[in-house]
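BUG-319 | component: ligand-complex export | severity: low

The export step for coenzyme A jobs runs without errors, but we want the raw record kept on the ticket for reference. Input record follows.
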Amino acid sequence: MYAKISGTGGYLPERIMSNQELAATVDTSDEWITERTGIRQRHLAAENQTTSDLATMAARQAIEAAGVSANDIDLIIIATTTPDLVFPSTACLVQAKLEITNGCPAFDVQAVCSGFVYALSIANNFIRAGQARCALVIGAETLSRITDWTDRSNCILWGDGAGAVILTATETPGIIATHLHADGRHKDLLHVSGGVSAGGEGAHVMKMEGNAVFRVAVKTLDAIVDETLAANGMQKSDVDWLVPHQANIRIIQATAKKLGMSMDNVVVTVDKHANTSAASVPLALDTAVRDGRIKTGDVVLMEAFGGGFTWGSVLMKWA
Ligand code: COA
């Protein structure tokens, strides 16, 4: 038994904040942001919009694209770093919003920007083990709620959004392999300033040593590409599409170079929505599926790197 993606969906909140608009509030410029990151704008959730709202919108699209009904879903996993509440999980909130009443398991996964790759890997294993046949996997974030809008080296990077897929059981892959990793020694390079058990004064916001994170990300993503290809007996030239985590165009270009791949075969959406953490890979995938770039039989490599540090890949044949 294997799993394949049968439908994708994406949602970006209506409100767009351009680099120019941001430059009116912090000491930066459109030129600086575009040159260093490739980001031109980000979407921001409305005051009354939560992560589960964004996730539900993306899920509805994926359900429709897959041609299933909500109550066919027998597993819900949401990757998020910005859950609506401490509990219930965002996955349970989405289950209720989608009016899924069949009692299917629903839970969140926290692996920051690698969250979607982690969640997809877990859902793949559920299906391969025969414990699910139709999984809803979502990456959704309202990072604007944990952004320090006065820190110019940081606030330029983030945005809100959600991406979703329906993963169904199939006799041929589909998902060929997933590779997941973490190294918990680098908290100080990328973390949120407070939380529940550790407490912390005032608003909890993201803190990052951008330069150091950049270097580790490039090195780590190089290594996961090598590992994924070697473990699955594939050559660089076997990969038709790279769907990378959308953090920074320069990190994406470095991975494409490692693969010897033209940027024409790399899905880039970071310019439109900035880094949406767990939502970034499924948003990019949804874009390339809907505009017809990814076609049946294409080999797709998805990869991500994020806080933790966490990183991973999903290798699949589009079926
Ligand atoms: N606008 C203008 N100048 C800025 C700026 C901004 N938004 N942010 C920082 N600078 C300045 C710095 O103050 C510094 O000035 P100085 O040389 O006078 O001290 C200079 O630009 C260079 O700063 P540096 O931090 O070395 O820049 P950088 O080239 O590393 O770019 C990031 C900064 C954040 C864009 C880059 O490090 C990055 O993208 N890192 C990876 C972050 C990431 O993707 N994290 C998520 C991983 S999932």
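Assignee comment: Attached the raw record above. The pocket of coenzyme A is lined by residues 28, 32, 36-37, 113, 152-153, 156, 208, 210-211, 213-214, 217, 247-248, 275, 305-306 (CB under 6 Å).
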